[in-house]
Design goal:
Blueprint lengths: L1 H40 L4 H42 L1
Length: about 90
């Protein structure tokens, strides 16, 4: 029983990592590219670094939403199917 709960906790953290990874990587890459551009042109505008990162993350969320929803639905179904095993 304890092993099942620990495994469920590990799987929950892995799911959270998988779901957040595309947005985090997109924001990281956009921020890196914008920082390189700002360093080469010596433009120090705060909105230049903030707005494109937000737009990249929103676009990634829009395109990744079906995949993310499928992963969350499968995980929820798995948890709901495990409930009888925890009760008895």
């Amino acid at each position: 029983m304890e092993a099942k709960l620990i495994g469920l906790g590990v799987e929950t953290f892995k799911l959270a990592l998988y779901l957040s990874l595309p947005m985090l990587l997109g924001g990281l890459i956009a921020g890196l590219l914008i920082s390189i551009f700002q360093a080469t042109t010596q433009i120090n505008e705060m909105t230049l670094s903030f707005v494109p990162k937000i737009l990249v993350v929103v676009v990634i969320i829009i395109f990744a939403m079906p995949w993310m929803m499928n992963m969350m639905i499968e995980f929820t179904q798995k948890i709901l199917n495990m409930i009888p095993g925890f009760l008895f």
